[in-house]
Amino acid sequence: MKTSLGGALIILLTLVALSVLPVQANQTDTAENSDPANPSGNVPSSTFEQQSILVEDLAVEVHSDNGIIIVMAKIKNVSRTMISGYVTIHLLSGEGQKVLSYEEELNGGEAFAHGTSVEFEITARVGDIKNISSVSVDFTKT
């Protein structure tokens, strides 16, 4: 009787000890089954840059007779913070090459809030206006 009671006590203590231990999932098997291209189970790292502005209502007037181009647009702050900066307007050839570039300070150099749109207009005289086929607008924070 002593022997069987001692054996039962050891089995009971083993079961109690096992029930107290935390259960861990086998993450390696789960990761291998869920994404065969990523067997480590880690999310791949990437670089992310939040967009701070949107260019809205971009319009271009071309006056071929006197070589004048007028570029107008609104820059909307979508950054969640106050921003200030300037736009660079690039006049591009048919091949996408920069022919001329102009800079324009936005909002008189003052910062503007999230959700706010600031208008700009730039007038440029271009010697060979026939070489201009498109316009791009870049924003630089200051």
Overall description:
- The protein is an alpha+beta fold and 142 residues long.
- It has helices spanning 2-20, 27-34; strands spanning 53-63, 68-77, 85-92, 98-105, 117-125, 134-141.
- It has a domain at 53-141: Immunoglobulin-like (Sandwich), CATH 2.60.40.3230.
- The strands form two sheets. Strands 1-2-5 form a three-stranded antiparallel beta sheet, with no helix packed on it. A three-stranded antiparallel beta sheet has the order 4-3-6, with no helix packed on it.
- A hairpin with a 5-residue loop joins strand 3 and strand 4 (98-105).
- The longest helix is centred in the first third of the chain and has 19 residues, at 2-20.
- The protein is globular and about 55 Å long.
- The N and C termini lie far apart (87 Å).
* C-alpha termini separation: 87 Å
The CATH architecture of the domain at 53-141 comes to Sandwich
Class of the domain at 53-141 in CATH? Answer: Mainly Beta
Main beta sheet: strand number and arrangement? 3 strands, antiparallel
- Give the count of helical stretches: 2
Order of H and E elements: HHEEEEEE
| Mean model confidence by pLDDT | 77
Q: Give the overall silhouette.
A: globular
- Proportion in helices: 10-25%
| Cα-based radius of gyration, to the nearest Å | 33 Å
Strand content: 35-45%
In CATH, the topology of the domain at 53-141 is named Immunoglobulin-like
Number of strands: 6
Low-confidence stretches: 1-34
